[in-house]
Design a protein that fits this description.
Elements (H helix, E strand, L loop, with lengths): L8 E18 L5 E20 L4 E6 L12 H12 L9 E7 L9 H16 L6 H11 L3 H6 L2 E5 L4 E4 L6 E7 L6 H14 L9 H9 L2 H7 L1 E2 L2 H7 L3 H10 L4 E4 L6 E5 L2 H12 L6 E7 L5 E4 L10 E2 L2
Parallel strand pairs: 1-8, 3-4
Antiparallel strand pairs: 1-2, 1-12, 2-4, 2-5, 5-6, 7-10, 7-11, 9-10, 11-13
The structure holds 4-diphosphocytidyl-2-C-methyl-D-erythritol and adenosine-5'-triphosphate.
4-diphosphocytidyl-2-C-methyl-D-erythritol binds next to β1, β2 and α5.
């Protein structure tokens, strides 16, 4: 009898920006205690998982040459972690993963975490696993602090090392302009730089999270803009002083406010509406302060199966510098 080979499964997964990122103390395990508000953005990666005789990872798209295709790829680590979790033999995995990247590599937008989350959702579908979202979130947390949120999407409060997620009421679609930098920043280096700055002096700290949650409930982008804050920004700017110019240029171009996204170096500019975002993007792309500009919106859903390979794909509007 012929074995039926399951059809490949494709998953679309968003990127993220931290609307609020309060970094607390360095813990004994090397992580910092966080209070953060994540918002998922319409800049996406797509990940296809398929049964194949030549297992491995292939990467195409934005920054693909900087992404490992061996066991260090977070998507492959997700394959192995899920296999172990459900008792499959890790040495005999007949899985091929194709990643189409739209999210900049080492950009502070959780691109690798997104691919890991997408792989978990894709494989659960490909292998027809009876596995709930909470159980999958537990597997996700073993892969990285940002991975559970990339499964979840939307707007959420993250605590612990960022892996503990609860949804947040958010009433509005927010319009953003992203400024991609040339080259990335390594997340551990940025946290290390913050520790160094704090040992030496008193870099600015964000306020409490409650006003941010209230602004999200009200749905007013102007209110939210006043409250965007990221403790890692001082560290990212210390490592990349040019980001100061980028942040200034976005606001000068008409954004309500700008912030370094996560550990950087991508900068995210909140705009009043979709038309303003297009205007800001056009002006910023001519200012010579970044590699490329993208217009995106959020929140959007987390990692979701988008069906067969023949389904049409929608790309976010793009403006190239
Ligand atoms: C900057 C953020 O993107 C904000 O959401 C995240 O905190 C980073 O999350 P991530 O890339 O999933 O990070 P992980 O892979 O879990 O950790 C990478 C490294 O970042 C540092 N790290 C990360 C999370 C955290 N709460 N404290 C940390 O100090 C640690 O040096 C850790 O070894
Ligand atoms: N699937 C993947 N996509 C991108 N980078 C990956 C992937 N797998 C492993 N990496 C490696 O992980 C590192 C960080 O990549 P990533 O794009 O996730 O950074 P980031 O977006 O700054 O992360 P975060 O916002 O979660 O801190 C890079 O050195 C990259 O080579």
């Amino acid at each position: 009898m012929l074995a039926v080979v399951p059809r490949p499964v494709t998953v679309r997964v968003p990127s993220k920006v931290n609307l609020h990122l309060a970094v607390g103390d360095l813990r004994r395990d090397g992580f910092h205690e966080l209070t953060t508000v994540f918002q998922s953005l319409s800049l996406t990666d797509e990940v296809t998982v398929a049964v194949a005789d030549d297992p491995g990872v292939e990467v195409q798209g934005e920054g693909a040459s900087a992404v490992p295709t061996n066991g260090a790829n977070l998507a492959w680590r997700a394959v192995e972690e899920l296999a172990r979790h459900v008792g499959r033999e890790v040495g005999e995995l007949k899985v091929r993963v194709l990643i189409r990247k739209g999210i900049p590599v080492s950009g502070g937008m959780a691109g690798g975490s997104a691919d890991a989350a997408a792989t978990l959702v894709g494989l659960a579908n490909l292998w027809k696993l009876e596995i709930g979202r909470d159980e999958l979130a537990g597997v996700a947390a073993n892969l990285g602090s940002d991975v559970p949120f990339m499964l979840h999407g939307g707007t959420a409060l993250g605590t612990g090392r960022g892996e503990s997620i609860v949804p947040v009421l958010s009433r509005h679609t927010y319009h953003w302009v992203l400024a991609f930098a040339r080259g990335g920043l390594a997340t551990p280096k940025v946290y290390g730089e913050l520790d160094r700055l704090r040992a030496e002096g008193d870099p600015p700290r964000v306020g409490g999270v409650e006003p941010v949650l209230e602004a999200l409930a009200s749905g007013d982008p102007r209110q939210l803009a006043l409250l965007l804050g990221n403790d890692l920004q001082a560290a990212a700017v210390s490592l990349r002083p040019g980001l100061r110019r980028t942040l200034r240029a976005g606001v000068a171009a008409g954004a309500l406010a700008g912030t370094v996204s996560g550990s950087g170096p991508t900068c995210a500019f909140l705009c009043a509406d979709a038309d303003d975002a297009l205007r800001v993007a056009a002006e910023l792309s001519g200012a010579g302060v970044c590699r490329t500009v993208r217009v995106v919106h959020g929140p959007v859903p987390g990692a979701r199966v988008i069906g067969g390979d023949d389904e049409p794909r929608s790309a976010p509007p793009q403006v190239h510098a």
